[in-house]
Amino acid sequence: MAEAPENLPSGASRIAQFYPDIWNAFAALGQTCSEAGPIEGHTLRLVKLALAIGALSEGAVHSHTRRALAEGVSKDELKQVALLAIPTLGFPQAVKALTWIEDITDPSSGGSRP
Fold it and tell me: What terms describe the molecular function in GO for this protein (predicted)?
């Protein structure tokens, strides 16, 4: 299920507020894609996080990190996804992704934990 508009980043929240039909169609597409095959649960959330990392989308990484934590995915599992990006996306992108994840998992650290 899509995040409630009040939990969305400002840009997405504005779309949800001012163009609810577009937001609802977008949310329905996401739900339909999630249900299109056998991947589900934690695995589905980790795949979506990996796609957000690969797309270089800080907002999507934040969103999928929040949703994963709410679904019981551990901080260590989330951080491993960022580390798995090293050989494919490169060290700088993986570090960037790790800091984006830590923005949510460890906000008091400022995303600077080793």
Answer: peroxiredoxin activity
* Nearest alpha-carbon partner for 111 in 68, 58, 51: 58
Give tens-digit pLDDT for 17-49: 999 999 999 999 999 999 999 999 999 999 999
Q: Could you state, in order of their start, the residue ranges of all structural domains in the chain?
A: 1-36, 39-114
- Which residue from 35, 8, 32 is spatially nearest to 19, judged by alpha carbons? 8
Under CATH, what is the fold of the domain 39-114?
A: AhpD-like (1.20.1290)
Compute the half-sphere exposure of residue 59: CA atoms within 13 Å on the CB side of its CA. 8
What pLDDT, in 10s, does the model give residues 54-67? 999 999 999 999 99
